[in-house]
Amino acid sequence: MTTSYLVTHSGGFHADELMSSVVLTRLFPQAQIVRSRDAAWITPGPDRVVYDVGGGYNPDLRVFDHHQRDAPLRDDGQPFSSFGLVWKHLGRDYLAAHDIPAHDIETVHAKIDAGFVLPIDLLDNGAVNPSVAGPLSGMILPSLLETLKPVFDQGGPEADMAAFHAALNIARAFLEARVARSAAGLRADDMVMTAIAAAGTGRVLELPMGMPFRPAVIKAGADQLLFVVTPRGTDDWTLGGISKDPNSFDLRADLPAAWAGLTGAALEQASGVLGAKFCHNGRFIAAASSYEAIRAMADQAVTQAEADGL
Q: Is the distance from CB of 107 to CB of 114 less than 8 angstroms?
């Protein structure tokens, strides 16, 4: 069976059919996207996938619409959009096509579903209003994708199709980046867990490179860790704090107040560390020119934090 057509509705477009199209064009690169509401096109057939149009949901027939009565719901009662339905049934194949290791596919699939697919499903169904983002409502991805539609007096089938394909390329970049970051996060977790074990009861986590580390720190229950040391090159090392909460800028411990906003010789004098280069005024990150210098700064920061009762 050859899939020759990917059929979705004509007219204006939204994030759900764009993201569905990203998945489907990866799995069926030879297929042509057809945007139509004509019954001859939106009727299921062995040569096509029909999504976000047609009034039906039947994964065996490869029909993924959510506009009908008794539309499919998630196990928790939240609604699907076409993207959620396509992701549910074909998302794992999409991840495999991106060479995600087989043992990570379920984890990455669930993570992207919860953090990327579900929000689009909810917005498309009106279950969440963009206004919940406050002044940032116009900057959320579905809103930005819709700004790529032709303006009211410059539309028409050809303009709509050109805009759809332009928006599709942008949507593809975002989904592919999300997949790459989710997979990278799992690789980072393994590396951070190794570093946590090496740190033992120490207060400083040393990483071999910059990477997301907080999820593994929380998973490991490494509450003793206060700071992170990371190289940025042969002559550039950083010392950073660890946030108390993923949604907060509050740190478990700040860098010493005497360092705040200093650079170069002034920071060397304040810290007594030759090679100290910079400390942000917010006291959440500092830099030095060598491993020895950044470790000396880390030791001072730990001593100060412990003196403050941490």
A: no
According to DSSP, residue 177 is labeled: H
Alpha-carbon separation of residue 303 from 102, 205, 223, 242, 258 (angstroms): 45, 15, 17, 16, 14
| pTM for the predicted model, two decimal places | 0.88
Cα 168 to Cα 6: distance, rounded to the nearest angstrom? 13
d(CA 71, CA 213): 40
Tell me the DSSP string of 245-285.
STT---BSSPPPGGGTT-BHHHHHHHHT-TTEEEE-TTSSE
Please, are residues 111 and 95 in contact by the beta-carbon 8 Å criterion? no
As a whole number of angstroms, the distance between CA 189 and CA 42 comes to 44
CA torsion angle for 2, 47, 110, 131 (degrees, to 10)? 140
> Which of 17-51 are b and which e, b meaning 16 or more Cβ less than 10 Å from the residue's Cβ?
bbbbbbbbbbbbeebebbbbeeeebbebbeebbbb
pLDDT, tens digit (0-9, with 9 covering 90-100), for 243-285: 998 777 899 999 999 999 999 999 999 999 999 999 999 999 9
71 vs 30: CA distance, rounded Å? 30
